[in-house]
Structures are given as C-alpha cells and as structure tokens.
Amino acid sequence: MSKKKGLIGLFYIAALCSQSLCAQTRQMGIEELFRLADEQSKSIQTYRTETEAANEALKAAKAQRLPDVDISLSASYLGNGKIWDRDFGNAMTVDMPHFSNNFALEARQVIYAGGAIGSGIKQAELGKLLAELDLQKNVQEIRFLLVGHYLNIYKLDNHIRVLKKNMELTEEVIANMQARREQGTVLKNDITRYELQKEQLNLQLSRVKDTRKIANHQLVTILHLPENTEIRPDTSLLEQQVITLTEEEWQEMAKGNNLLLKQTQTAIQMNEQKVKQERSERLPHISIVAADHLEGPITIEVPVLDNNFNYWHIGIGVKYNLSSLFKNNKKLKQARLNVRQAEERHQLAQEQVENAVQEGYVNFLTAFTDLRTQENSVKLANENYDVTNNRYKNEMALLTDMLDASNMKLRADLGLVDARINILYNYYKMKYSTHTL
Fold it and tell me: Omega of the bond prior to 226 within 30 degrees of 0, cis?
C-alpha cells in the first residue's frame, strides 16, 4: 500500500512538473541577454559562417597573384605507320616503336593584366567587409528583438503586480461591504457588482499571464535555452541611468555607426572596382612563360627515331582581346550605371536614417512627457480613490462612484508602469537606430 502511495506521489510530482511548475527561473540583465545571443543565436551563427566564407574568398582572390603551373604525363601505344604516294598508291608500312611517352611542365606568371587581379582582390576585400557588416547588423537586429521581448516581459510582470494589488483592494472592499451588509447598510446587489469587478480582474490577470508565457517562450527560443526556463528581468532595470543626448548628437552618432550607411558606402566602392575590372578587359595581358617538354619517340623523322627529345623555352607572352573594343562597351556602361545607382541608394539610406533618428528622438522626448503625466495621474487617482472610499464608507458616495475610482486607479497604475518601460524602450530604439546596441 505504501508503495502504491509512493507511486501516486511521484506521478503527481511529474504532473506538476509537466505543467511548468518545475520551471527553472533565471534572472538576467540585458547585457547577459546580448552575451547569450552572441554565443547561441542560430541567426548570428549563420552570418558568422558567411563571414568565414568571405574570408576564404579573399584568400582565393589573392592566390591569383601566384603563377599558373601545369604538368602533364602520358604513356601510350603507337601503331605502325603508313606511307603513300600523293595519289595514295605504293603503300608502305613503317615500323614504329610501340611505346610513346610525353612529359610537359609549363609555368605562366602574369605581370600585367590591366588591373584585373588587383581589382578582384579589392572586390573580395569589400565582399568580406560587407559580410562583416551583415553580421554586425544582424547582431543589432537580434539584440533589439531581445530588448523588445525582455521589456515586454518586464511590463507584463508589473501588470501582474498591479492587478494583484488591485484585486487585494477589491477583496478588502468586498469584505467591508459584507460586514456592512450584516448591519443592513449595504445591499447584496452592491457586493455582486464588486464581485463582478473582481472576476474581470481575474480574467485580465489570466490573460496577462498567458501573454507573458508567449513572450517568455519567444525569448527562450531565440537564446536556445531549455524550454522550461522562466526568465525574470533585472528588478533594478528602471533605475538605469538613461543618457539624454541632443538630437544633433544622436544624428552624428548615426552617421558614424549606422551599418546601413556603411553597407551602401561599401557597395559604391564595390561597383567602382567592377568598373575597373571591365576596363581591364580592354587592356593587354602580359605574362612570363616557361616550359619544358620531354617526348619520345621522335616521329617527325622517317624512319622514326626511338629516342627521347627534350626541349625548353622561356619568354614573354602578350594577349590582347580585340573583340573587347566593341563587345565591352555595354558592360562598362552598365558598371558605371551601377556605381551611380549605388550612390543614389547611399543618399536614400542617409535620408532614411536621418528620418528614423529624428522620429525616434521625438518619441523619446514624448516618453518623458508621458511619464510625468502618468505620475500626476497616479497621484490624482490615488487621492480620488481615498476620498471616494472614505465617502463611500460614510455613505456619502454611490457604489458607481467607488467603481469609477477603482477603475481610474487601475488604469493610472498600469499607465505609469507602461510609461516607465516606454522610456527604456525608446532609449534602446535610439541605440538601435544608431547601431550602438
């Protein structure tokens, strides 16, 4: 019997754990979020791999400066030859050595290619830079996404705290009303209306908790933490000192750090190198050539000489593609248009970044104004609630007045929490706009 009870107990504990009651609570700050994302985010790892591939592409481009070396070795069976007159009469068989060998070693070093090799290396360097900028930009995007989920959880936790506090006040009011009902000074209908408000608060609390679960799951998924991890924001977050720069200072910070501007500027340089590469096609390519050949037998003699023949040479080779004079014009024009398009995109990006910073700064200032307004609203709502509560206790106010005061206090408390979190959100949004997260 005791074993049966023990098994039932273990089953009960397992059931509780399956309902996330055994969730692992982990308190962390924003900096730890960023560190975990850098280490474990699949998105960041993808861009990091792309950067490594771009680095290998740069090495491959630099390898084009090295000489081209070809080596060939062959052995074959030679059949006997035939000799005819010019009218294909008087055929005669020529005995041939049946073993043939051929060995060749050739080396070619380009000394001038019209700048094609240098341009290719520069493009690879710019490609690596673009990959690094893509990685940095993805890091900024992931961090801002994490901040959004993190602050949302902080906001929802405060909503839960405020709702629970208001439920406690509601329960106190209900208890007082029940006592007064026993004295015959309060109708049951009045208690029912407050109990209805309590149920509405319970429903609202349940919805907020469910929303928090969703936000927590999204955050845990991005960080690749165990599924049962429950993240608790740093309670001192709202005490963080927010840097209040001027709009001009934020704009200068964006000009120096915004990755979109760096990407579009790099794209201009990339297209300029492509123009140089197209120009190089219209210039001669000069290289030093060296070769050594070993062949046998010597078949240019009759009878055939069953000997090995070795010869070598060294010299300078010049190659010029005459067709590029009339074929390459369109490609060169296209490359120049791509440069102009890249410059226009850079100018457009400058406008977009400037507008984003200006909009973010205005919203940042508005968040401070909203906070001051909400602080005054909470103060007035608390005063109104205390006065209305006292009047209601002294039978000088209606139940509807009490309900209005309670709802006003709840909205004010929630608004204050949101206003405080909103300042931090807009601050981090400014850092994201300037890519200084």
Answer: no
